[in-house]
């Protein structure tokens, strides 16, 4: 099969080349979320062919070699005769494709497949070229194996999720095709003109022994959190402005006194967003007796900035993992086949848990700012709950309840999964990372943060409009205009609020809120 021509079959998207070096986070997102095709570098195929010969050389060796001529896990002491070794690989995949629960999202499955292909393309796994190219063809055809929520302990990698993908490569199990239709894998492969693979020595193990699921979800989360933290700065600027807060505390020289890099970035964003605000200038007078704003306004750059720094740390860990060849045993560059523990997901699990903590804290501060808008004792002259006719109308009262419910759940999701470990495989695998679980809860946290920020932006937009005839900053005015153009965030009598919240969520997630601000400010960091 011509992998290069197969990879270029998706119109409008340039193929991502796998095998020339580590993938980037953005490349993972392009393939996983936007269906960019992939192409294998010829150099990687040459290395795959070379190391496959090493595995072939071990097949007839009288000395047992794990995954080639032995069982797996606690059954590794059994020597498998030559005539049963293909059955050994099939049995491994079938038995390990034991997931349960709801289907995992398509973008996660595609990331999982891409990252396993990336490791296979290093030549460190001993897989055959034809098995690798078939896997690439399956991904490029838009075939996404059905993977389930539960089944991975994050050590020996994401075994069950990867096994469901390997099962589809064998023409077994269920998949969704490029249109999202669920069907038997054999049918989807046939429709795409792809012949199923008959696995040979070590190939089953090579297909399932990696941290690819948790790493894929980490890459997607990093990408999303970077955008959401800019939105958090936009929301903060709108809230500070609408609550008659001061932007003096965001001065660069003040933040230079504490040289945390993310903090400086966040403060600069907020200063830029509030520039030329008529609302702010209206209370820059001696008549204003307030000395300091509440922490949720004044300390926002510290929290959001620290979240930025944590995301940057997570990105460094992801980069190291993207440069890794995770398998056991592994074929070293000098031709040795060695057992190792690199499949343990601890490095990825730890940062996944860390990101859930910072997402919850950014959301918690956002909810506090929203609540200040609704309390007439703290909102400096705005109507209670921003209601049109308080008492008859409830305004945004229950929107804050929705925020509070999400934040409460995010705090529960911030409890780390990586501190847990349940021994498996008859105590052979007696310590596991639970990194897959860390990744699954982080995805819920990222979704929650987008919703909490959307409610803050929606509420702040309403509050800013209620300050008329005072004029907001051009950047925040642009955000308000984007919301109102979508029939969200206008003051007035009560109306069905849920659709407005979902509209705001959509504008946060698709980047419209950020773009509206940046149309005035230029790129925000």
Automatic annotation (TrEMBL):
Presence of keyword Lyase: yes
EC number: 4.3.1.3
Database matches in SUPFAM superfamilies: L-aspartase-like
Keyword Oxidoreductase: no
Keywords for this protein: Histidine metabolism, Lyase
PANTHER family: HISTIDINE AMMONIA-LYASE (PTHR10362)
Protein name in UniProt: Histidine ammonia-lyase
């Amino acid at each position: 099969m011509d992998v290069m021509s197969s990879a270029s079959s998706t119109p409008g998207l340039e193929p991502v080349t796998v095998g020339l070096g580590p993938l980037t986070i953005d490349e993972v997102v392009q393939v996983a979320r936007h269906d960019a095709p992939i192409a294998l570098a010829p150099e990687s195929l040459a290395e795959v062919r070379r190391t496959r010969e090493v595995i072939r050389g071990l097949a007839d060796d009288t000395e047992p070699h794990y995954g080639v001529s032995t069982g797996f896990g606690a059954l590794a002491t059994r020597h498998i005769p030559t005539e049963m070794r293909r059955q050994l690989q099939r049995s491994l995949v079938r038995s390990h494709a034991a997931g349960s629960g709801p289907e995992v999202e398509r973008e996660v499955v595609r990331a999982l497949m891409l990252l396993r292909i990336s490791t296979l393309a290093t030549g460190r796994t001993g897989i055959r070229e034809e098995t690798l190219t078939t896997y690439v063809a399956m991904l490029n055809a838009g075939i996404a194996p059905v993977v389930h929520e539960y089944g991975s302990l994050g050590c020996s990698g994401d075994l069950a999720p990867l096994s469901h993908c390997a099962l589809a490569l064998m023409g077994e199990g269920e998949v969704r095709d490029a249109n999202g239709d669920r069907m038997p894998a054999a049918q989807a492969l046939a429709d795409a003109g792809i012949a199923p693979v008959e696995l040979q020595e070590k190939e089953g193990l090579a297909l399932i022994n990696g941290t690819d699921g948790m790493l894929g979800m980490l890459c997607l989360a990093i990408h999303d959190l970077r955008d959401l933290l800019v939105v958090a700065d936009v929301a903060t600027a709108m809230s500070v402005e609408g609550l008659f807060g001061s932007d003096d505390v965001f001065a660069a020289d003040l933040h230079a006194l504490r040289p945390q890099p993310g903090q400086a970035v966040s403060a600069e964003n907020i200063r830029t967003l509030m520039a030329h605000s008529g609302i702010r200038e209206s209370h820059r007078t001696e008549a204003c007796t307030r000395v300091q704003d509440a922490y949720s306004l004044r300390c926002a750059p510290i929290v959001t900035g620290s979240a930025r720094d944590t995301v940057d740390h997570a990105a460094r860990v992801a980069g190291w993992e993207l440069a890794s060849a995770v398998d056991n045993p592994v074929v070293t560059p000098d031709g040795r086949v060695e057992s190792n523990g690199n499949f343990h997901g601890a490095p990825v699990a730890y940062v996944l848990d860390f990101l859930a903590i910072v997402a919850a804290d950014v959301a918690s501060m956002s909810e506090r700012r929203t609540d200040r808008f609704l309390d007439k004792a703290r909102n400096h002259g705005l109507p209670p709950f921003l209601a049109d006719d308080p008492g008859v109308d409830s305004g945004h009262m229950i929107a804050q309840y929705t925020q509070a419910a999400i934040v409460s759940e995010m705090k529960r999701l911030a409890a780390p999964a990586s501190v847990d470990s349940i021994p498996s495989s008859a105590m052979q695998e007696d310590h596991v990372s639970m990194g897959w679980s860390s990744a699954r809860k982080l995805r819920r946290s990222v979704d929650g943060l987008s919703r909490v920020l959307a409610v803050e932006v929606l509420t702040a937009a309403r509050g800013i409009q209620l300050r008329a005839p005072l004029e907001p900053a051009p950047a925040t005015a642009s955000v308000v205009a984007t919301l109102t153009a979508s029939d969200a965030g206008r003051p007035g009598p009560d109306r069905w609020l849920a659709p407005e919240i979902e509209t705001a969520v959509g504008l946060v997630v698709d980047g419209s809120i950020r773009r509206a601000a940046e149309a005035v400010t230029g790129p925000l960091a």
